[in-house]
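User: I want to check something. If I give you two sequences, will you return the structure for each one separately, not as a complex?

Assistant: Yes, each is folded on its own. Here is the first sequence with its structure:
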Amino acid sequence: MRRIVRNLLKESGYTEADEAEDGVVALHKLRNSKFDFVVTDINMPNMNGFQLLTEIKSDEKLKHLPVLMVTAEARKEDIVAAAQGGAAGYIVKPFTKATLEEKVNLILKKVGLG
């Protein structure tokens, strides 16, 4: 799924998209490179998307990053938890390129990057 999201982002003009196999690797990449935006699945091994969101929002150097949460389930409690945790948006699989593009563009406009 992460390769699909990465390819959809590249097709949408976000050519420098990167990917990580889990939240631990993602956090390491975020702390050691420069990123403008994070798309994370909620269900990942080693560190799930909620844990990653918490780490990002509690890190002085990363807390400004907008985070779009992706999940296969549209559970109300997950949507509420994502919003309370500071996620910029939430998207449910399966989704189209247009839906992803629209969400990303909307979030980037909100934070002044779009």
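And separately, the second sequence with its own structure:
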Amino acid sequence: METVILAVVIAVVVLGALGGLVVGSRRKKPLPPPPTSVPDITAPPAEPHVGDEAETPRDEARRTIEEVDLPDGSAPVAVEEPPVLDVPELDVPEPTAGRLVRLRSRLSRSQNALGKGLLTLLSREHLDEDTWEEIEEILLTADVGVAPTQELVDGLRARVKVLGTRTPQELRTLLREELLKLVGTDVDRTVRTEPEDRKPGIVMVVGVNGTGKTTTTGKLARVLVADGRTVVLGAADTFRAAAADQLQTWGERVGAHTVRGPEAGDPASVAFDAVKEGKEMGVDVVLIDTAGRLHTKTGLMDELGKVKRVVEKHAPLDEILLVLDATTGQNGLVQARVFAEVVDITGIVLTKLDGTAKGGIVIAVQRELGVPVKLIGLGEGADDLAPFEPEAFVDALIGD
């Protein structure tokens, strides 16, 4: 048994040795013959550096700096154009004369309540006491006022009695003359904006809330620009929200500079700065819009007096215009009295004097304050502000 095992082991060893010889003979291969010479090896091109050309440089003739043609400066140089700013186009206000023609026709809408009613009553064959009472009622309803009404009726009575027979044209002439006496034709209604000894003219605009004061200031700037004047606007109404923005918009439309301050700031300070800048800029007129004050508030009225005093540290005020709403009637007279006590009113601006207004307020307010109506506003348009002309006003009331 042991002999058999030994024989098997010897056989395994012999087979393993024979396998190794076979594998080794297969792995052995002849080596290639050694090279007779060293081959030329070309190095790869180097990577280009900054400023170098990507291709392999070639030998070529090079010029010196003396041989290079330099530009002589005659070639055009490209200049970048500055950006064009989108500047809004300025309005060209309508001339004053052109506005008056259009405003006369609008003012004539007020004639129904006053002029036509009076002419109808005066045309009666017999003018008894009842008729004269009706005439008085029409005048009072038109806000002419008690004293002017009595004066007008007395004048009409005397002239009708002398005239006797009355034709429609004679009645119209008679009524026109009596109304012109009440309105006044010999009063200076010029808005003083051109002082002889200095520049600029200074105008302050006052009035209660809701009368169109800020709008009137903007429209007045348009009137002045239309007449060839330069204007600075002072937004001294620092209490009403957006009042300064509103005034600045009016100014931008006609190219007028606006001086403003912080909301709820000191209005006297804004007014002072507006006059100061107006003098530095050399403009013709400074318009100061003040806060719309309730005439019953004593403290606010005192502050209006302060604005006046501060402005006059620069120069005297040339004009103080009181803006009244013509539709308020006798209530406007109460406002006018209080303002006249605080500041020296020099002129009146009647706004909303269109077909809804009562034209007699012109007579009443002039009698109450002793100052003339200088400007009238007849609508919401930008150019609906014009100088007051007594003849045109009366003619519009009684009709052509």
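Because they were folded independently, the notes below concern the second chain alone. The radius of gyration is 49 Å. The mean pLDDT is 79.
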